[in-house]
Amino acid sequence: xxxxxxxxxxxxxxxxxxxxxxxxxxxxxxxxxxxxxxxxxxxxxxxxxxxxxxxxxxxxxxxxxxxxxxxxxxxxxxxxxxxxxxxxxxxxxxxxxxxxxxxxxxxxxxxxxxxxxx
Length: 118
Description:
By secondary structure, this protein is an all-beta fold. It is 0% helix and 53% strand. It contains no helices and eleven strands. The termini are far apart.
């Protein structure tokens, strides 16, 4: 069973930057898509960015132009570079994986907290 572990969260002032990393305990080549989700207490988890094995990338409208997702299968990592952070970006960020043949993201990490102060 591949495990996902996130790191890189922290407290940053509005306008600042953070880079989140997700390292897998095994190969992520079998994952059609890898993604970053975030959750604010009381809200549903929302998709922030998705990257497929073929290089297709999709962002939530709220982060377009500010966040960049990338994946490196050889290093078993997925990275989320975040810039021009806003207080509304605050939340717990989760790395997720969706295997080929699956209709939903079924592998999740424990998350890393991002807090953006105004």
